[in-house]
Amino acid sequence: MTPTTPTIPTTPMTPMTPTTPTTRRVAITGLGVVAPGGIGVKAYWEMLTAGRSATRTITHFDASPFRSRVAAECDFDPEAAGLSPQEIRRMDRAAQFAVVSAREALADSGIEADTYAPARIGVALGNAVGCTTSLEREYVVVSDGGRKWTVDHEYAVPELYRHFVPSSMVAELAWTAGAEGPAAMVSTGCTSGLDALGHAAELIREGSADLVVAGATEAPISPITSACFDAIHATTPRNDDPEHACRPFDRTRNGLVLGEGAATLVLEDLEHARRRGAHVYAEIAGFASRCNAHHMTGLKPDGREMAEAIDVALAQARIDPSEVDYVNAHGSSTKMNDRHETAAFKRSLGHHAYRTPVSSIKSMIGHSLGAIGGLEAAACALAIEHGVLPPTANLTEPDPECDLDYIPLHAREQRTDVVLSVGSGFGGFQTALVLARPERSGR
Amino acid sequence: MTARAVVTGLGIVAPNGLGTEEYWAATLAGKSGLGPVTRFDAGRYPSRIAGEVPGFVPEEHIPSRLLPQTDHMTRLALTAAGWAVEDAAVDPAALDEYGMGVVTAASGGGVEYGQRELQNLWSRGKEYVSAYQSFAWFYAVNTGQISIRHKMRGPSGVLVTEQAGGLDTLGHARRHVRRGIPLVVSGGVDGALCPWGWVAQIATGRLSTADDPDRAYLPFTDEASGYVPGEGGAILLVEDAGAARARGAERIYGEIAGYAATFDPRPGSGRPPGLRRAVEEALADARMTAAEVDVVFADAAGVPELDRAEADTLTAVFGPYGVPVTAPKTMTGRLFGGGASLDVAAALLSLRDGVVPPTANVTAPADGLALDLVTGCAREARLRTALVLARGYGGFNAAMVVRRV
Amino acid sequence: MSGHTLIDLPELTRLLRECAGEEEGVDLDGDVLDTAFMELGYDSLALLQVIGCIQRDHGIELDEDAVAEAETPRALLDVINSAARDAEKLAA
C-alpha cells in the first residue's frame, strides 16, 4: 500500500444525481438520548458543549487483563429511567437504552396517540453488535465458563433467543411507538446509526411511512468486545490517563475508546409536521452510503469512497459544498481513520474544507459502534438548534497531517444551517448524512 | 416512470441442493434435505433434526486467505454471491463501481465462529481470541465480504428482521434501483448450526422435537409441532431493467413487482396481526389484484397458531382455496435471513418452468384451514405472478410479488 | 548476534499459513525472506494474528511499533528473535 498525500481537486467531482426526484421532505421533530456523561438530551448537550469527556477506566467488568481498559460508560439506572421490572428482565442493556431514548424523543416530538395511524409509523434501528452483553453473560452460564462446546440448554434463560436475534430490539421500539408500519434493524457496523437514519428518511420520502422512529443503540462494553478490539490494536492503550484517552486528530492519538448509549430521532414528513405545529430541529436533506470494497477493517488513505458518499449526499440535498457550516467527523482517534477522513473532506469540500469547522464528539462520549451515528446526528440537530458547535476534546497537539479546523477543546458559537455528518465502519461502509435548517435561505 | 427492478442472476446454497439446478431438481422432486444433525453432537438436545447444506467443501469455493476469517455461513454466502454474478454473466470490473450495491439479510451473525471465540476467551484467555473475530461474527460481515470480493462500491446495507430479512433486503435492493443504482447483489444466506445457535432456538419453544426428518416440520397440518432450522439461502442479482438490457443480459427471471413490510401490534393489544396488510400493500404496490396471483409461497411457520394466522390471511385475501399455496422450505428447514430470498428464487424458477414445487411430507392441511396446498407432486400450471410471504420472530411481516416479464 | 533462534523462516511461514491462509500465486516456500508481506498477500490483520500467536505461545512481548515497521519476514524475524534473546538474558 503506497501512502498518498491528499490533494485538493480544483473542481468538485461530479456526483451521481438521484433519478427519482421526490417532493416529500423529512423533518426531525423529536430527540432522545442516553449517553455516557448525560442521560437525556439536556444533560447530553450541556456535557458536549462544556467539552467534558466521559471516558474512564472500565467499571462494567474487570478489564485488568486487557490491553485497553478505558471506555465511555453510561451511568444508567434502568429503574430510575422509567423501565418496569419486566422490561428490565426482558431487555438487553442496548434495548433498554433504545426504549428510554425513544420515550424521550416521542414525548419531545409532541405526537399524540392518534396523530398517525399505526400503519403509517415505521421503525429503523441502527445497531452493530446486538445484545452482546446479555449473550456473553448467558454463554458463560450455558457453557459452564467456556468449558463446554455442547452447551447446556437446561441453563438457557427464556429470553435467550431475544438476545440472539437483535431484531428483537426493533420490536421493543415498535411497541414503544405503537408502530405497525415497516420496521427493521439496520446493521452496517459503525455506520449503522447514520444508515438507520438514511433508511428511515427513505421510508418517508417514498411514502411507506409518515413518521419513523429512527433509533441507534449499542451496549458493547463486555469482555468479548474488549478482546476483539485488543486483538487488532484498535482500542487505545492509554490506560493511565482515561479521561484524555480519546484524542481525535491529535498527534498522540493511538486508538479508539469504546462507548455505549443510544439516540432516537423522530422523523416526520415535513408538511405533516408543520401542519400539526411541531417543532422542527432540522431536516434530513441528503444521505448516501458507499463501500470501499477494500478491506474489512482497513482504510485507504485517500478517502475516496467517503468523499463519493459526501458528494452524493450533498447533491441529493442540492447543497453546494461551500454551504456546509459544520462537519461532524467520524474522528475515531485511530491513526488511520483521522487521516482518511481529513483527506475525504478535502476531496469533497475543496478549499472550503479549510474554512469549515470540524469536530469529533467521540473525544467525549467514545465510540459506541452502531449507536454513535445516532448520537452524532442528535448533536448535529442540536448544533443547528442552538447555534453552538461541540468541540473536539483533548486535541492539544495537532497532527500535521490533520490540518483542518477541528474546534479544539472549546465549543464555538456559530449560526449553523447546514451540517454534514460522516461515518466509517468495519465492512468498508462509508456514510454521509446532511442535516439542514428547513427554512434556510432560498428554501 | 419508475425504474423496474428485475432479477437476472441466482446463486443458491440449500440443504437439498448446492447450486441452482441441483436445488431446483430436488425441490420439484419433493426431495428433502432434512436429516439428523451432523455438524455437532445434538444427541443431548431435545431437537436433533436440521437442514445442512450437503457436500460443501470450503476449500473448493473460498480463497485460502479468507478461510481463517470466515464463518461457515459467510463462506456459503460468498459462494452463492459468486454464482449469482456468474449466472447473470455480469463482469463487475466492466461496470461503474459505484453503480453496484450489496444488501444482505442477517439474523444471528457468524454464530459458530462467535461460539468458538467466546470459548477461546472464557476457557483459555483473551490471547486466544482471533484477530478476525471483530468482524467474522457481526451482522454486516456478508455484505462487507461480498462487496470486497466483487469490488462493488455502491450503496450497501444489512437488514436484520429475522426470517423476514430475505424479502426486506430484496425490497431494499429495488429501492436502490429506483434511485438510480443499476445493480444490487441482494438476498440472504444464513445459518447457526452449532450448539450455541441451537440452544438459543430451543429457548423459543418453537423447535420441532420429532426425530423423523419426514415428520419434523409439517406446517399447516394437525401434526405441526414447530420448525426445523437449516442453513443456506439465495443471493439474487437485482438490476434495473433498462441497464440489464443495455448490457445485454441473457436472462431475466422476473420482476420485483410489489413489496411491503409491516409490523405486528404489541401482544395483548387486541389489534389484528400485520400479515394481511403486508399482502394487500404489496399487491397494491404491484398494481395488481389478488385474482392475478397464480401461486403463493407461504411463510409456513410450523407453529399451529402462526400457521392458522397465515392461512386465515390467505383465505381473507384470496378466498377459501382461492390460490395454490406451497412451502418448499419443508425440504430445507427455516433458514433465518436466507429463507425468504430462497423462496423468491424458487418462485422465479416456478415462473420460468411453469411448475409449482410441492410442500414435502404434508398430505393435507389441517381441518379448518381452507388452503389449496400443493402436496405430493409438483403441479404444472400457467404461472405469471407469484406472491412470497415471510414473517420474522417478534412481529415482522413482509410480502413480495414477483412476475414474469 | 548470539543465542538461539526462536522462530525461523519455515516456522514463520507455517504460522502465516495456519493463521491467515495463503494467497493464490504466492510460493511461501520460495525465497521470501525479503519479500514485503503485502506482496505475499498478508495485511496488518494477518500479521497481528500471527504476532498474537507467537507472543502467547512463547511468552514473549514484542514492541508494537517495531512489529508495525517490519515489512518483510526478515525484519519481523529480527524483531522476534532479538526480543526472545533479550528475554533470555533477563531471565539469566
From TrEMBL, chain A:
<feature type="region of interest" description="Disordered">
    <location>
        <begin position="1"/>
        <end position="21"/>
    </location>
</feature>
<comment type="similarity">
    <text>Belongs to the thiolase-like superfamily. Beta-ketoacyl-ACP synthases family.</text>
</comment>
<dbReference type="GO" id="GO:0005829">
    <property type="term" value="C:cytosol"/>
</dbReference>
<dbReference type="InterPro" id="IPR014030">
    <property type="entry name" value="Ketoacyl_synth_N"/>
</dbReference>
<dbReference type="InterPro" id="IPR014031">
    <property type="entry name" value="Ketoacyl_synth_C"/>
</dbReference>
<dbReference type="GO" id="GO:0004315">
    <property type="term" value="F:3-oxoacyl-[acyl-carrier-protein] synthase activity"/>
</dbReference>
<dbReference type="InterPro" id="IPR018201">
    <property type="entry name" value="Ketoacyl_synth_AS"/>
</dbReference>
<feature type="domain" description="Ketosynthase family 3 (KS3)">
    <location>
        <begin position="23"/>
        <end position="437"/>
    </location>
</feature>
<dbReference type="GO" id="GO:0030497">
    <property type="term" value="P:fatty acid elongation"/>
</dbReference>
<dbReference type="InterPro" id="IPR016039">
    <property type="entry name" value="Thiolase-like"/>
</dbReference>
<keyword id="KW-0012">Acyltransferase</keyword>
<dbReference type="Pfam" id="PF00109">
    <property type="entry name" value="ketoacyl-synt"/>
</dbReference>
<keyword id="KW-0808">Transferase</keyword>
<dbReference type="InterPro" id="IPR020841">
    <property type="entry name" value="PKS_Beta-ketoAc_synthase_dom"/>
</dbReference>
<dbReference type="InterPro" id="IPR000794">
    <property type="entry name" value="Beta-ketoacyl_synthase"/>
</dbReference>
From TrEMBL, chain B:
<keyword id="KW-0012">Acyltransferase</keyword>
<dbReference type="GO" id="GO:0006633">
    <property type="term" value="P:fatty acid biosynthetic process"/>
</dbReference>
<dbReference type="Pfam" id="PF00109">
    <property type="entry name" value="ketoacyl-synt"/>
</dbReference>
<dbReference type="GO" id="GO:0004315">
    <property type="term" value="F:3-oxoacyl-[acyl-carrier-protein] synthase activity"/>
</dbReference>
<dbReference type="InterPro" id="IPR016039">
    <property type="entry name" value="Thiolase-like"/>
</dbReference>
<comment type="similarity">
    <text>Belongs to the thiolase-like superfamily. Beta-ketoacyl-ACP synthases family.</text>
</comment>
<dbReference type="InterPro" id="IPR000794">
    <property type="entry name" value="Beta-ketoacyl_synthase"/>
</dbReference>
<dbReference type="InterPro" id="IPR014030">
    <property type="entry name" value="Ketoacyl_synth_N"/>
</dbReference>
<dbReference type="Pfam" id="PF02801">
    <property type="entry name" value="Ketoacyl-synt_C"/>
</dbReference>
<keyword id="KW-0808">Transferase</keyword>
<dbReference type="InterPro" id="IPR014031">
    <property type="entry name" value="Ketoacyl_synth_C"/>
</dbReference>
<dbReference type="InterPro" id="IPR020841">
    <property type="entry name" value="PKS_Beta-ketoAc_synthase_dom"/>
</dbReference>
<protein>
    <submittedName>
        <fullName>Actinorhodin polyketide putative beta-ketoacyl synthase 2</fullName>
    </submittedName>
</protein>
<feature type="domain" description="Ketosynthase family 3 (KS3)">
    <location>
        <begin position="2"/>
        <end position="404"/>
    </location>
</feature>
From TrEMBL, chain C:
<dbReference type="GO" id="GO:0017000">
    <property type="term" value="P:antibiotic biosynthetic process"/>
</dbReference>
<keyword id="KW-0597">Phosphoprotein</keyword>
<dbReference type="Pfam" id="PF00550">
    <property type="entry name" value="PP-binding"/>
</dbReference>
<dbReference type="GO" id="GO:0031177">
    <property type="term" value="F:phosphopantetheine binding"/>
</dbReference>
<dbReference type="InterPro" id="IPR009081">
    <property type="entry name" value="PP-bd_ACP"/>
</dbReference>
<dbReference type="InterPro" id="IPR006162">
    <property type="entry name" value="Ppantetheine_attach_site"/>
</dbReference>
<keyword id="KW-0596">Phosphopantetheine</keyword>
<feature type="domain" description="Carrier">
    <location>
        <begin position="10"/>
        <end position="84"/>
    </location>
</feature>
<dbReference type="InterPro" id="IPR020806">
    <property type="entry name" value="PKS_PP-bd"/>
</dbReference>
<protein>
    <submittedName>
        <fullName>Actinorhodin polyketide synthase acyl carrier protein</fullName>
    </submittedName>
</protein>
<dbReference type="InterPro" id="IPR036736">
    <property type="entry name" value="ACP-like_sf"/>
</dbReference>
